[in-house]
């Protein structure tokens, strides 16, 4: 299920429309993930405040979206672009890769809420494929 | 038995009382067929599913989407007994329709996204959690009679 040229173009076009709000989107998606899938909180026990809208959640949402933005820019070579982050997640963070799917789902929900007319089924499938490809690149170094 | 908080009960009743079944059902099923094209395997008799536009414009998809969504009414009205409520439908999906239960989750995700886009900021994280829990319980009940 690799990204076609059309998928890449669709993702870049959507990104152009949403990038000015990307920090907010990231924070919202992360907050939702922690609420809707409480098991994900186990990775953030070191944060003072895990509630949606808290400072650590906002900061981390921004960090994540920075990486997703870089992935959009390097969409033709995701494994290459995500190599260092993959090492980080594999050797240091050791996040179970099933959680990448969970965060992706919540990112899609936020896009549906904030950009309902742009998030058509065709855009949805391209974004879902893209986020799956990013997740795959992130899990490259795991074993 | 599934434990529901007062908030969860109220949220589910509220969402479905305001639901435009025809529109949401149509859009959710169509989105599922576009985003997860392998789900088209169950709809060989629906005619043209060749591309997103064809799927969205297909009247059989629209009609069936509404049927599926109205099927959720049983659960909305019997939240304390969803497992038993869906026993027959579970047998149907297993023995007659031969639907891989993984598809219930795929449709649930598409339904979540459509409802989210309709409710906008009203679809808070807590509302999302209640809605997804409800759909997961329905999916589990529909899977119960598979063997």
Automatic annotation (TrEMBL), chain A:
Residues 2-143 form the Globin domain. GO terms for cellular component: blood microparticle; haptoglobin-hemoglobin complex; hemoglobin complex. Pfam families: Globin. InterPro entries: Globin, Globin-like_sf, Globin/Proto, Hemoglobin_a-typ, Hemoglobin_oxygen_transport, Hemoglobin_pi. GO terms for molecular function: haptoglobin binding; heme binding; iron ion binding; organic acid binding; oxygen binding; oxygen carrier activity; peroxidase activity. The keyword Repeat does not apply. Keywords: Heme, Iron, Metal-binding, Oxygen transport, Transport. One of its GO terms (biological process) is hydrogen peroxide catabolic process. It comes from the Eukaryota. Belongs to the globin family. This is Hemoglobin subunit alpha-like. It comes from Astyanax mexicanus (Blind cave fish).
From TrEMBL, chain B:
Residues 3-147 form the Globin domain. Coiled coil: none annotated. PANTHER family: HEMOGLOBIN FAMILY MEMBER, HEMOGLOBIN SUBUNIT EPSILON. Pfam families: Globin. This is Hemoglobin subunit epsilon 1. Keywords: Heme, Iron, Metal-binding, Oxygen transport, Transport. GO terms for molecular function: haptoglobin binding; heme binding; metal ion binding; organic acid binding; oxygen binding; oxygen carrier activity; peroxidase activity. InterPro entries: Globin, Globin-like_sf, Globin/Proto, Hemoglobin_b, Hemoglobin_oxygen_transport. It comes from the Eukaryota. Belongs to the globin family.
